[in-house]
Amino acid sequence: MAKYEWTKARILRWTLGISGWVIALIAAFFAEQYYRWEVCNFSSRDGESHSYDIYEGTTIDSLFALLREDYDISAETDLNWHMRILLFRYPEPGHYTVPAQIGDRDLIEKFKYGRQTPVRITWNHFVRTREELAGKVTNHLLMDSVTLLRLLEDDAYLAPYGLNKETSRCLFIPNTYEVYWNITPDQLFARMEREYNTFWNKERRAKADSIGLTPVEVAIVASIVEGESHNKAELPLIASLYLNRVHKNMPLQACPTIKYAVGDFKLRRVLYRHLQIDSPYNTYKNPGLPPGPIRCPAPETMDIVLNAPKTDYLFMCASPELNNTHIFSSSYRNHAAAASQYRHTMDTINWETFDAIRKAEREAANNQ
User: What mean pLDDT is predicted for residues 89-106?
Assistant: First the structure.
């Protein structure tokens, strides 16, 4: 009887021991599966995240060949099983950023459902032409610049936005925007229209009405104001001057529009022969505003135009000291005197020496 009881207890211990080992093995298996599934099956070799542009028609094999260039896969068998569970057949096209470590579920669902990482598109107020704008906007997009340029010059396409090829740049207010890499042209224009309407809210539109301009005309004036000076402190006065000329129906006679018409944006001095160019942007020959902006004006400059101070200035001339300031006048006599001094400086200056002095001044300012 004692021997039977001892054998029964021993069998029970063995059963419990084996059951414990089985449970431990099962737990370990599921723990590993959970880890590969949810936590990490992909580890980048450099410990950094990596980004990929996935094009239409990319296969699963091509996708993982691309990932293997940067990532170690701890368990290929688990990955294949997880792909079957999630019915992963092909990746959606798009731009994706994969973190340094990622589990199978997050990675598979990222590519299966097109959970892209937005890209940033940026341009500033130094963008002057439609060609330059198209290049800047599409620099990090699947869309090519030729496609965007064609639409920027298509009056029929632009008509629903109240624009034409000369004013199309007004829709693209300089800033940094997050969009998807494979955004379509229609989606891009819709996004820019939303941003445009956000900027041109009721308050700004009311201010534009109060100075007798449309939002597009404000952008045109702002583009000229920016072209006149890099001295931000002077921009309100320059804006006031051009608004005065617009309201008096005077020719704008804006040198930046001549540079735009000539196509030489580094032109230091506008000469008489430049004023004779046959172009709708020649504001010495053509009355009123030019047909479009001469650059993509910054939002801040458009606000400067909308809030320009009241002055009686009608003329301006670069200071003969060439210090990036202007002399403002309300009479032509005073303007002519300032212009004479400026012409004398321009006729006698040694540009090599001048550039060397300005370079030294900039370096000294940067070292302070």
Answer: 96
Element (H, E) at 124: none
Please choose, from the candidates 229, 152, 199, 206, the residue with its C-alpha nearest in 3D space to the C-alpha of residue 302.
199
The answer to whether 221 and 243 are in contact (CB under 8 A) is yes
Pairing of the two strands 326-329 and 71-73: unpaired
Taken in order 46, 51, 53, 58, is the CA torsion positive or negative? positive
CB of 99 closer than 8 Å to CB of 49: yes
Least confident of 29-43, 44-58, 214-228: 29-43
Per-residue pLDDT, averaged over 124-150, amounts to: 96
Hey, is 52 helix, strand or coil?
strand
What are the DSSP calls for 323-337, one per residue?
Answer: SS-EEEESSHHHHHH
Query: Count of alpha carbons within 13 Å of 62, Cβ hemisphere only?
Result: 13
Alpha carbon dihedral 172, 178, 180, 181, in 10-degree steps, equals 80
Per-residue pLDDT at 1: 47
33 CB-near residues (< 8 Å, 6+ apart): 78
**What's the rounded Cα separation, in Å, for the pair 338 and 336?**
5
β-pairing verdict for 42-44 and 71-73 = antiparallel
pLDDT confidence of residue 322: 77
Residue 84 has a CB neighbour count (10 Å cut-off) of 9
Query: 194 forms bridges with which residues in the sheet?
Result: none
Q: Does 175 score more than 90 pLDDT?
A: yes
- pLDDT per position as a tens digit, 326-367: 999 998 888 888 888 888 887 787 767 666 655 655 565 555
**Long-range contacts: 235-238, Cβ < 8 Å, 24+?**
235/301, 235/304, 236/304, 236/307, 236/308, 236/309, 237/309, 237/311, 237/313, 237/316, 237/326, 237/328, 238/316, 238/326
Pick left, alpha or beta for residue 57 (phi over 0 → left; psi -120 to 50 → alpha; otherwise beta). Answer: left
pTM flag (> 0.85): no
Report yes or no: 76 and 41 within 8 Å, Cβ to Cβ. no
Determine the residue type at 220.
I
